[in-house]
Amino acid sequence: MQPLAAWLVARPQNAVIALAATLLLPVLHIFSGIFMVLLVLKQGVRLAAIEGAAAAALMILVYLVAGAPVMQVVVAILTTWPPAILLAVVLRSTRSLTLTMQVSALLAAVAVLGCYAFIADLAAFWQPVMALMVDWATQNALLEQAQQIEAEPLLVAHLLTVALIVSSWTMYALYLLFGYRYANAAPGETGKYGRFCDLNFGRVIAVAVAIVSLLAYASGMPWMQSLAIVLFAVFWLQGLAVVHWMFVDGELPLFVVIMVYVLLPFLHVFMIMALAVVGYTDTWFRYRRRVVAANEE
Fold first, then answer.
1. pLDDT of residue 27
2. Residue 100 has pLDDT above 80, yes or no
3. Of 4, 69, 75, 93, which has the most beta carbons under 10 Å away?
């Protein structure tokens, strides 16, 4: 990855081409956000924004010439580059990867509150998606699942809202983590803002999860339940950081790390929740600190 990182920052036109090409290709879409974080960290927000604007103009021109819907590329730009720039700017300002991730978790919570504050009817908002889900379930002979979606549209709407926010947050976090990693591989000095394997969301957010969860259970309010789930789910990255730390420290074999990544696509929800439990309990019981203390004895 070092040669690619060096090529990206060598000339502005290289960055423009890379940003545009990766955003246009669905399989490489994640790299566009990663590259933007890298560019902000290595070149500063002003030059990275100019390169992004040039790439956006290039893509819009391509879409106009091809007769494709321009709004599609505009949505892709707005949902990819501004969040990546924001997180990279926060990282440069705080000089702490952990603090930046904590800020991103709070932004995810704000996103939950925003959805419930500004979307009057979540069921109506998600109706087109639920219709597609019912059609897919019916075509695949999953009639019971289709009936459940039709019977409880509001519950499904709440779950879809949570899934959207958690998946979006995870994507933006990956932009930041990989962008930071590849920025350190590029030529020139990049600030040392911490290691991923030391990630800790802290007890303040952990306490917030506990309080919101208790209030959600007592009140039964859907927005509070969704907020509790999202705040808890972000700890999955801390759980993954614990796995990486255990490997780096020699406590876990490489096979275990590989298996975690292999199982993630197949046992997605289960693995996310399992890692979130590891991450959340690590906040309270400090597994990594205990291992260090035990090794020093």
1. 73
2. yes
3. 4
- What residues contact 201, with CB distance under 8 A and at least 6 apart? 98, 101, 102, 105, 234, 235, 238, 279, 283
Checking if the pLDDT of 188 tops 80, the result is: no
| pLDDT at 11 > cutoff 80 | yes
Terminal C-alpha separation, the chain: 39
Question: What is the amino acid identity at position 75?
Answer: V
Q: What is the pLDDT of residues 256-292, one digit of tens each?
A: 999 999 998 888 889 999 999 999 999 999 999 888 8
* Residue 181, C-beta contacts closer than 8 angstroms, at least 6 positions apart: 196
Between 2-10 and 12-24, two packed helices, what is the crossing angle to 10 degrees? 120
Residues 257, 243 contacting (CB under 8 angstroms): yes
Distances, alpha carbon 281 to alpha carbons 207, 242, 270, in Å: 12, 11, 17
What b/e sequence results for 87-117 when a residue is b if at least 16 CB atoms lie within 10 Å of its CB, and e otherwise? Answer: bbbbbbeeeebbbbbbbbbebbbebbeebbe
- Give the HSE-up count for residue 150: Cα atoms under 13 Å, Cβ half-sphere: 13
Q: Is the pTM of this model over 0.85?
A: yes
For residue 180 the two structure tokens come to 């930071």
Task: Give the model's confidence band at 29: pLDDT under 50 very low, under 70 low, under 90 confident, else very high.
Answer: confident
The kind and range of the H/E element at 22 are helix 12-24
Q: Which amino acid is at 287?
A: Y
Report yes or no: 13 and 47 within 8 Å, Cβ to Cβ. no
Q: How far apart are CA 174 and CA 254, in angstroms?
A: 21
Q: Are 49 and 77 in contact (CB under 8 A)?
A: no
